[in-house]
Request: fold
Amino acid sequence: MINKMDMLEDIEQVLVSQEDIQKRIKEVGAQISEDYRGKCPILVGVLKGVVPFYAAMAQAITIPLQEDFMCVTSYEGGTASTGKLTFRKDIDHDIQGRDVLILEDILDSGRTLKLIVDMFRARNPRSVKICTLLDKPSGRQEDLQADYVCFTIPDAFVVGYGLDYEDYYRNLPFVGVLKPSVYQDK
Ligand code: IMP
Ligand code: MG
Reply:
């Protein structure tokens, strides 16, 4: 448990404001609606960090789509990816012949999405694309890029708008840099 629970005080700097997030999601949602016109994509959210982004993006997309979710964890708490992935929940739908659009909160090393994309490709979908709220290119370990990026951010540990530190701070309505003092003395 974090004893001092003043969320705003624990933020060093706001990186992306709530207003900018909402505006950008509308723009990207309009682009996706155009690109997938006449198709009925399946929107796959990677839990749990994607929840607020998924809700907003699904509504910003104005064409019919099917919703699905999967759950993978790579952190086991802490602020650095363990590189070890645990699959906790697969999607419910058969994606053979389907256009799959994966929604993620953040693309960092790319390990999580690389694994998911490879797993999906083996199921013979028509297409697999990635849409991420945040892209942290400095952390990349895999040769992987998102097809839709809302914001590119510098190398910092961020929380808010779904992103967490030990499942805290997900409910902040903006994306901010977490003060290192919050996790350093743990
Ligand atoms: P990757 O496999 O290294 O690309 O990491 C992807 C996952 O790591 C995301 O789904 C997040 O859950 C988590 N993650 C990466 N960077 C951050 C961050 O700055 N703050 C919070 N979570 C992060
Ligand atoms: Mg996380």
